[in-house]
Amino acid sequence: MIIQPVRGKSPSIGEDCFIAENATIVGEVTMGDHCSIWFNAVLRGDVHYIKMGNKVNVQDGAVIHCTYKKSPTTIGNNVSIGHNAIVHGCTVKDNVLVGMGAILMDDCVVESNSIIAAGAVVTQGTHVEAGSIYAGMPAKKIKEVSPELSAGEIDRIANAYVKYASWFKEE
After folding, report:
1. Model pTM?
2. Which long-range contacts (CB under 8 A, 24 or more apart) does 148-157 make?
3. 89-120 pLDDT, tens digit each
4. Which of 22, 53, 94, 143 would disulfide-bridge 112, Cβ 3.0–4.6 Å?
5. Backbone angles phi, psi at 69, to 5 degrees
């Protein structure tokens, strides 16, 4: 794994986190407890800060970055960032699932209890309503997140990644 300072700012990693051996975390990145950063994921806090809450999983190949002096990236608690997603200079609040291959552009805000569908492109400045599912290119609201979907997907995936991370800590 690559964990390194950039311009005097070093990553800060919370308690009980898993970081895959080929993940990259550089610069001003702050992560909470019980997070997992998976294979080939890149978190670049070189041009602005990245702040992540507790129980965030950044899955294989995902990229989290920012825009220089303009748009930091903030991620809340209980968030899953799917394989190969790009989260760039935006805000993702609590209890969110960002699907595989989704792209979140600068200055968008994803409110809590939401799902961004796989492959969706959330364009710059979009405000994703709390408790909704956004899909497509550009992403638009397609429906509300039901309690069953919230428990069956958002919570299930976040909890599963805490479990998967524990398998690697046993070795």
Report:
1. 0.96
2. 149/115, 150/95, 150/113, 153/97, 153/115, 154/78, 154/80, 154/95, 154/96, 154/97, 154/113, 154/115, 155/78, 155/95, 157/57, 157/80, 157/97
3. 999 999 999 999 999 999 999 999 999 999 99
4. 94
5. 60, 10
Under 8 Å between Cβ of 133 and 153: no
Q: How would DSSP label each residue in 18-44? A: EE-TT-EEEEEEEE-SS-EE-TT-EEE
Is the separation of the CB atoms in 108 and 87 below 8 Å? no
Statement: residue 171 has pLDDT above 80: no
Distance, in Å, from the CA atom of 38 to the CA atom of 1, rounded to the nearest integer, reads 10
Cα(102)–Cα(133) distance, rounded to whole angstroms? 13
Dig out the tokens for 47 from the structure.
């041009």
